[in-house]
Amino acid sequence: MENLFKYSDNNKRYHSLDYYYRHKYNSKVCKISLNANFSCPNLDGTVGYGGCIYCSKLGSGEFAGKISDDLDTQFEEVKKIYQKKWPNAKYIAYFQARTNTYAEVDRLKQIYEPILKKENVVGINIATRADAITDECLDYLDDLNNRTNLTIELGLQTIHERTAKLINRCCSLDCFEKMVNRLRERNIDVVVHIINGLPYETKDDMIKTIKYLNKLDIQGIKIHMLSILKDTPLEKLYTQEKFHVLTKEEYVDIVINQLECLRSEIVIHRITGDPKKEDLIEPTWLLKKFCVLNDIDKEMGKRNSYQGKKLK
Q1: Which of 45, 101, 142, 240 would be a feasible disulfide site paired with 186, CB 3.0-4.6 Å?
Q2: Going from the N-terminus, what domains does the chain have, and what CATH number goes with each?
Q3: pLDDT tens-digit series, residues 6-45
Q4: What is the pTM of this model?
């Protein structure tokens, strides 16, 4: 049971982000999501048009700050909210919306550097695509990594090519794996996003994605449930084909099986989603995020399950 208790002083049977932050920084750490108004190579025709089929009009990261506000305003408004509850907290600046390395390095510096100078900012997380990091950008990320706690978040979603085509990902698995390796050669932490419940994927498909990632040198993972949002290509596909949407019970079962296939040192940055009620079509059970989290915890206890249990 060593794996179970190694990262578990918060009653979790997996290596939670809260545990990781508290033990790394000896402090409450709050992540502040920012919107720097980036575009995406899968929107403007560089690699594709229209973006991934599940993305809203705002693209990925619709919970980031308001585009109409400058980054300083976005940061300070959220910080004020956190300070009321955790006056001594430290902060991670999370560049979340769309593809946050998709610009010339000079522009990236103008965006990142002022935020890093803010008081109690201990790191920066950058969400991006594996095909949107140039050699020059990689050199700059290497420099950032030597000055702060840098994490690059890469969207993979699935390892299965048939699904990648269906969701219009427009980035190959080979490209993804090569970028993970290039980032790790420079000791840059990598967090990977996956989505459970993608159209026509089976439980076995989703577990295979996790088993693949477990063999890579990654430091964290975000597990999402597919959200069918209004005014997206995914909504049209769902209306036409009525593909199966995972029930909460199916999702809980799949996540637990996935966690059992992951090395215990991999940090679980997210284990469910929390879409906006006004945008969500299915599954409506996602609106009760804490119920999903509690159900995962309870079921893991019933099964005597823990992260890495199936690894020998």
Answers
A1: 142
A2: 2-303 (3.30.750.200)
A3: 666 667 999 999 999 999 999 999 999 999 999 999 999 9
A4: 0.94
